Amino acid sequence: MPKDISVMAGQLGHGLLLTLGMTALAFAGAVLLGLLLAVFRISPVLPLRAVATAYVTVFRNIPLLVLLVLFVFGLPDVGLLFSLFFTVTLTMALYWAAFICEVIRAGIRTVAIGQAEAARALGLSTGQVLRHVILPQALRSMVQPLANIFIGLALSTSLAAAVGVAELTGQAQFVMLKYDNPLTSFAVTTAVYVLITLSCALLAGRIERKVAIRA
Predict the structure, then answer these.
(1) Are 86 and 29 in contact (CB under 8 A)?
(2) Which one is predicted more confidently, 41 or 186?
(3) Cα 121-122-127 angle, rounded to 5 deg
(4) Where are the domains of the chain?
(5) Does residue 36 surpass a pLDDT of 90?
(6) CA dihedral angle for residue 60, residue 139, residue 145, residue 170, rounded to 10 degrees
């Protein structure tokens, strides 16, 4: 029994590492793409606004599991071969970027338009205005929404088990089938997800307070 527990812990630990890695990489990619989409959405260039609006509309109205199945099984059919981990992480980044785009766009709208006009009057370029004036002020209203998206992304990694990724939920299913012990494996998995969620919420709260104090 102790040996079985050690093996189970090792397998669940490996699954946790995959979950954390997938979450971190997908969130980083989603933030970068979401920021680009948000810039497109507030751009005065109509084609850029149209592309970003279409992207957000499409990806926010497709279930993530459908996208995972489409990318995992569809990309090889068109000759694009990637690792399963990379494909799932990329899909999640593309999906959650649509939501992050709206968070950033809403945050930008909280900054008075006079701030941008004053910055342009000083000779700053559009990129400099966004980087040095708009985004630092918008961050205060974006911390909690971004944290909520991070939590949602972390929890949604469990869907990767449906397409064969041995992340935390996938490993829990394997342990359940191998050792016929569903209660222990999924109780541990549940506790880990709760710990991730609470840790993220506490960290977001601290960041939000620090940003508010510095403002």
Answers:
(1) no
(2) 41
(3) 90
(4) 2-214
(5) yes
(6) 80
- Percentage of the chain beyond pLDDT 70 is 89
Structurally, at CATH architecture level, domain 2-214 sits in Orthogonal Bundle (1.10)
Q: Which residues contact 89 (CB under 8 A, 6 or more apart)?
A: 22, 25, 26, 29
* pTM metric for this prediction: 0.86
Question: What is the number of residues in the chain?
Answer: 215
Q: What is the pLDDT of residue 215?
A: 45
* Neighbouring C-beta atoms of residue 25, cutoff 10 Å: 16
* pLDDT mean over 113-132: 72
Q: How many CB atoms lie within 10 A of CB 154?
A: 22
Shortest CA distance to 161 belongs to which of 4, 59, 15?
15
Mean pLDDT computed over 148-175: 84
Cβ(86)–Cβ(68) under 8 Å? no
DSSP for 170-189, please give it.
Answer: HHHHHHHHHHS-HHHHHHHH
Tokens representing 122 are 């000083």
Distance CA 129, CA 108 (A): 11
Of 149, 24, 147, the closest CA to residue 97 belongs to 149
Distance between CA 23 and CA 15 in Å, rounded?
12
What's the rounded Cα separation, in Å, for the pair 33 and 101?
A: 8
Which strand (E) or helix (H) includes residue 76? none
